[in-house]
Structure formats: C-alpha cells, structure tokens
C-alpha cells in the first residue's frame, strides 16, 4: 500500500484524472507492459538462430588482414587478392543460408564490396583509392553484421597499416593496436 501512496505522490495529476482518461492511461501502460513481456519471453526460431550463426561465421571468415589493411601497405598484392577471393567465396557459399531479409541484404552488400576489390585485380594499373574505398565498404558491412550477432571482437573502423608478405599472413587476423599511453 505504501508503494501505491508513493506513486500517487510522485504523479498526483494521474490520481485526479476523470474515469475515461484514467482508462486510456491504464490502457497505454498495459500495452507497453504487454509488448515488453512479449519481447522478453519470445524466443527466436531455429531458423533465426541458424541464420545468426551463419552470419557469425561470415564475420569470422572475413576477419583477415587482407580486408583491413590499406592497399599501399601490402607487400604482396597477389596475396591480398587471393585472400579476398577466398573470403568472398566463403561468404558467397554461406549467403543462401542467411534467411533474414535484413541480414541477407547486408550479406549481399558485403559480397558486392568484396567483388569490387576483386575487379580491381584485372586492371593493369591498380587503383589503390578504389580498392581502399571498397575495403571501407566491407568494413561498414562487417560492422553492421557484427553488431547484429554481437561478436566478441571489434571490427576496425578504419583501414590499418599492417604489412604482410604472403597469403598466410594476409589470412591472419589484423594486429590489435595498443592505445598510446599518455
């Protein structure tokens, strides 16, 4: 009873409302409570859970230096293109298993950005700015996907300066940067 009295003191205007407005306020409060309970108690379907697991795999497969490193910092463009082609192939293979329309579109956009990088491999003169533009698009797509599935690591927000010489090094995760101490 004391709780009710405290609430009445907190919002005294509500206690003095006529019957119809009280009913409307009560209906709004009950609707919000019902919506909150539905969100809390509704479990995702097996299909949704599988879709999220596939997206986690996609993000993990793309977590490689070849994707996160600026083009000019790479000592082997052949290794970069090979690693990115492998990454795109894995994503493309898994994409049909993503059932959510929103996640499916994000995955398709990721494939498109990876293909943009690969298309630059066919040019006689590599356009580093274009390649880095597509890499930044890949980072944006990965950040969006990682946010949905809540991976346990951070996707870099910008391209790094990691150097690699071989395909094996290009496939490795980016090197974490330690904060500069002041």
Provide a descriptive summary of the structure in words.
This protein has 182 residues and is an all-alpha fold. The protein has two domains: 2-41; 46-171. The chain is 66% helix and 0% strand. The chain is built from nine helices and no strands. α4 packs antiparallel against α6 and α7 (101-119) packs antiparallel against α8. The chain starts with a helix and ends in an 11-residue tail after the last helix.
Provide the number of structural domains: 2
What coarse outline follows from CA principal-axis ratios? elongated
Roughly how many Å is the radius of gyration? 25 Å
Beginning-to-end CA distance, first to last residue: 56 Å
Give the count of helical stretches. 9
SS-based class: mainly alpha
Q: Poorly predicted ranges (pLDDT <50, ≥5 residues)?
A: none
Question: What is the topological layout?
Answer:
Layout: H1 2-10, H2 12-15, H3 19-41, H4 46-62, H5 65-68, H6 77-94, H7 101-119, H8 128-149, H9 167-171
Helix pairs in contact: 4-6, 4-8, 6-7, 7-8
In brief:
66% of the residues lie in helices and 0% in strands. The chain has helices at residues 2-10, 12-15, 19-41, 46-62, 65-68, 77-94, 101-119, 128-149, 167-171.
